[in-house]
User: Which sequence fits this backbone?
């Protein structure tokens, strides 16, 4: 908490990038006064996050730790891809380009068995006093809502409908009545054309399976 005033520079810079300029509403206030913000040159990170800062070889001793605990304050405007960090051990600020943020290792809040035990003890205490444990119930409801929001989509319960569903289109009568004569005309096959009758007659004609009479073998037989 005593370091809250050191978070103001990046806070003001972030707010100016979010709001429009009064003179030129097409750009942000930060871009109008300074320049276009380059995230590659000045990366932003969550302010107040716990970090590990690399301790370079020209500063640490032979058997000293290679990193130091600290709190992220802001991005450095005077250096390329560097961060300003408050070191806990020396209680001073340090600019470093090798920083590991610990926010990725923070686990999501879940309902643990200890939370259920505390809730049960609160219920017993309030029951002995002939009152309801409204505070404990509110805490459990809040934890359940957070757990439902942070739970992956693949783990959520999926409900399926009954397999025996009704067909989408019901069998209905045709709008136009069809007479028996029209039904017979539509069902009867069409008459074959002249070309189809000739092709059918050619196909049905029996084929001669014996050798042709004009082959070399037949000519030699006739000569002999």
Assistant:
């Amino acid at each position: 908490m005593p370091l809250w005033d050191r978070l103001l520079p990046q806070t003001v810079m972030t707010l100016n990038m979010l709001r429009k300029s009064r003179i030129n509403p097409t750009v942000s206030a930060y871009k109008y006064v300074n320049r276009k913000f380059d995230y590659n040159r000045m990366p932003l990170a969550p302010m107040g996050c716990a970090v590990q800062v690399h301790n370079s070889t020209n500063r640490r001793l032979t058997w000293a730790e290679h990193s130091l605990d600290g709190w992220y304050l802001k991005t450095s405007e005077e250096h390329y891809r560097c961060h300003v960090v408050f070191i806990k051990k020396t209680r001073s600020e340090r600019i470093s380009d090798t920083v590991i943020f610990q926010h990725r290792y923070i686990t999501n809040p879940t309902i643990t068995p200890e939370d259920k035990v505390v809730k049960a003890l609160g219920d017993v205490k309030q029951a002995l006093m002939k009152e309801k444990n409204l505070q404990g119930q509110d805490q459990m409801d809040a934890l359940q809502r957070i757990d439902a929001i942070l739970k992956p989509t693949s783990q959520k319960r999926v409900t399926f409908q009954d397999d025996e569903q009704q067909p989408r289109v019901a069998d209905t009568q045709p709008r136009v009545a069809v007479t028996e004569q029209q039904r017979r005309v539509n069902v009867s096959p069409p008459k074959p054309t002249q070309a189809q009758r000739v092709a059918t007659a050619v196909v049905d004609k029996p084929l001669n399976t014996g050798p042709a009479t004009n082959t070399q073998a037949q000519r030699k037989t006739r000569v002999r």
